[in-house]
Amino acid sequence: MADVRVGFMGLGIMGSRMAANLARAGYELTVWTHTPGKAEQWACEHGAQVASSPADLGARSDFIVTMVVDGAQVRELLLGDEGAARGAAPGTLCIDMSTIAPADVLEIGARLAERSLAMIDAPVTGSSPRAADGSLTIMAGGEQGDFERALALFEVMGEVIVHVGPLGKGQAVKLINNALAAANAAALAEALVLAQAEQLDTAALLAVLGAGSGASTMLSLKARPMLERDFTTLFKTDHMVKDVRLCLQEAARAEVPFPAAEHALELLEAAAGAGLGEADFAAIVEPAAKRAR
């Protein structure tokens, strides 16, 4: 893979682990992040190069991966005054693996196409341990040919890789997934608050739920942290708030009600408002418990 050049921008909880897998796979990796010194330290640990700017990264890359917080950041990194598009050669493929609005993807993709640059939106699901071991689920939107070009990279970072349709559809699928996860987390939090109020043996409860129709991914991932109030961050509450808001915007545009997601958003926003925005979204149990008092 030494002759395939990959630029990676965004070395947060998820991005740092995803980029590490690309480095281990032998890709010629160049990184950039807005936090001073962070890219240099990461590159030293993982054997990568550091770009002086996004434009410099674009000039060194056949593929440009962005893994940041929101559409504004993706737009600035790719299309800003020092954006990667300024340095990238025609035909370079931009792969946004952040979670942003489908409308942002379409707008950014159209502006990149004006520069003869291609784009795929390929958000991921799975927390930081799955980012670390390369077992993420990746849902990609874009042209079939571009998806096939990116597939080898995706196979390094993910285990389940699905081409879900044209550009923007990856984000639509991801937003629905995260809103559903949030709704499940909200229901789980309220169920656990009720169980504690009933003074139930929570170990017995979890054994029954795990074997019964109440089982879910949220149960296996978040029940114990919720019970123990261990909000060690795997996925930030603030990020889940952003994703559920985006999903509800899409639902409103489609004129489809999604009350379960609306309720989850109320609890998530309450958790963030209580100072738990940087904590894991298992913190949704805190406002659920407060409402029960």
Share of helix among residues?
40-55%
Number of strands: 9
Element order: H for helix, E for strand: EHEHEHEHEHEEHEHEHHHHHH
The CATH architecture of the largest domain can be named as 3-Layer(aba) Sandwich
Distance between the termini: 57 Å
> What does the average pLDDT come to?
97
Helix-strand makeup class: alpha/beta
| Beta-strand content | 5-15%
Number of helices: 13
CATH superfamily of the largest domain: NAD(P)-binding Rossmann-like Domain
The domain tally reads 2
Short description:
This protein is of the alpha/beta class and 293 residues long. It contains 13 helices and 9 strands. It folds into 2 domains: 161 residues, NAD(P)-binding Rossmann-like Domain (Rossmann fold, 3-Layer(aba) Sandwich), CATH 3.40.50.720; 121 residues, Orthogonal Bundle (N-(1-d-carboxylethyl)-l-norvaline Dehydrogenase, domain 2).
Which keywords apply here?
Rossmann fold, single chain, alpha/beta, 293 residues, 2 domains, 3-stranded mixed sheet, N-(1-d-carboxylethyl)-l-norvaline Dehydrogenase, domain 2
Q: What does it look like?
A:
The chain has 2 domains: 5-165, 3-Layer(aba) Sandwich (Rossmann fold); 172-292, N-(1-d-carboxylethyl)-l-norvaline Dehydrogenase, domain 2. It contains 13 helices and 9 strands. It has helices spanning 15-24, 38-46, 54-59, 71-79, 102-113, 128-132, 144-157, 169-197, 202-211, 217-228, 237-254, 259-276, 285-292, and strands at 5-9, 28-32, 49-50, 63-66, 93-96, 118-121, 124-125, 136-141, 158-165. The strands form 2 sheets. Strands 3-2-1-4-5-6 form a 6-stranded parallel sheet, with helices on both faces. It has a 3-stranded mixed sheet with strand order 7-8-9. The relative contact order is 0.10.
